[in-house]
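Now for our target.
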Amino acid sequence: MFNRHKILRWILLPMFVCGASLGPATPIGAVLARQTETHVGGTQADPTALQAAFDQAAREFGVPERVLLAVSYNLSRWEDHDGAPSVAGGYGLMHLIQLDSIPAIDGKGDDARHPGRPDPNDPSLHTLDRAAALLGVSPETLKRDPAQNLRGGAVLLAQYANEIVGSSPADEANWYGAIARYSGSQDAVVARDFADAVYATIRQGVARTTSAGQRVTLTAANVAPNTETVRSLHLRSTHYSALDCPTGIDCQSVLAAYHQNNPDDATDYGNFDLANRPADGLDIHYIVIHDTEIDYNIALQVFQRPYTSVSTHYTVRAQDGQVAQNVRNKNVAWHAGNWYFNGHAIGVEHEGVAIDGATWYSESLYRASARLVRYLAAKYGIPLDRAHIIGHDEIPGPTPELQAGMHWDPGPFWDWAHYMQLLGAPIGVEGGRPGSNIVTINPDFAHNQPAQTYCYGAEATSCRAVPTQPLNYVYLRIAPDPTAPFISNPYIEVDPTRANSWANKALAGQKFYRIEQQGDWDAIYFSGQKAWFYNPGHNANTMPGSGVLVSPRPGQESIPVYGRAYPEETAYPQGVSPQSITPIYDMPAGQIYVATDLVNGDYYWAPTFAPTLDQAERAVVKGQIAYYRIYFNHRFGFVKASDVDVISVPQGPVHRSPHSAP
């Protein structure tokens, strides 16, 4: 979805804050606090400490342990993330929220918009402070001490139960209303969905080992919730229409907010724009795959808050593949952080946290998403290939200053090969002749497990190794040697081994031109550089590819690469300000890249809120400049057709030189 380290990477950058535990710590809390200080290579001495902390917090406040475990599991998968907040401002195992401001970045990506301020009187945005007051500890303690965070969640659940049923009931069935309130939503569908998911987890049971090595088990119990306990919450019941989903999946409407925030300023609104795609000339070319960086329930609430400046067309739940439609497909959702791609794409969010990978990316989620995407692709004529079914991490920033902050979801653990198979379009299915110099990246996902690290916090002060798991990319180096430095990117300064560094990673399904082979290494043009990756037999991590090849026209030292395909200035009608066409990279002379589409530049002018489309200031500006969209690096780029030649190259072997494989 969105985050500088990614998050509603759709929408916001995470607000990572580092702080020290200021409050008292129980013996278990002290053990867990040491866990959060573990750096790369560290281990946790007592793998049962977290389970004991759940038991202790549950007993202290009279909350059934299964209820506490299930609520936490649905919010965080029992991952603490070293005290860093989620994109929604939630901390720790119980996702206690402290949200006073929104980062000045949004999902619209039109160079002009900035999110507004959260409602300071909304109690759902300040559960961390409320829990801290009830416990008599500092908010910073709840952020940094996992055991205290569990106590904070437990004390809130107990308080809600007492307000609803007059006690902390021993019967797990009677916690339904308290769980629905803990969701933070006043929407009946959203609040009840969360409570239903919690009870489904209790019935199924779950056991997992966290990234910090903590073993936690929720023993299954066949509990039928007392749904009558939700009545006293007086949740609002909103009925939506125009649901657009395929048959065979559980689909509901939970529409994102469309609201003017400031009655005196029609440019201050959220969270999407009215349109009439594709009838208005704004063709739908792409489906963008995101993850939410927060749980399904909180994500839906974020989309319902008009000041967040983020939305998506669909959201898929991990537990069971349930789908919520949030924006009608004819409208332009604010999800990609690049206005050009927003105008031409449908966004699909997936419940998950990129760094946790398969912890969230379930088979139910993959299959429901694939069924939805097949349906949408057929309806709008979108090719089922990796050039058009793309990750948020493949979308460039529209301008140079926005490159570094673009999101990296769904991340390195998303199984693109499996997902494309479910779509009925396996990677490489379009075919390429053996010996082709166009290669399609296709690592063996199950066995591709290079080392990675990740750092939490705005200052990246808490770093550790990421648990080994399958990855969807190949590392790129400056020479055919496993000890050679990784290639770099001018916009990325973090350690190249970090999971969120996209500078040195070629992704499954992407296509590049192979220029050289040495031993078991292949070289490609990537990001204006010559980049090497390990490819035993020259087919272990690739398949033969096909496509159109483009290269700078002779006589130029380099040509510009753009982050969006906007029209020329003369195409804009009177009253519509021409948009800048600003390069984000240079493509050096002689380099060759694979092009995916040839499109004429366009721009959707939608500057203000309007109650209905026929009352809106709107225009689809069509230009004459033609652009090729190319695989330039981990992200796509655009080059003007007038700047390149379409070239024909031999299909035979590229230059080979001796080299010893590692």
Summary: The chain has a mean pLDDT of 89. The radius of gyration is 25 Å.
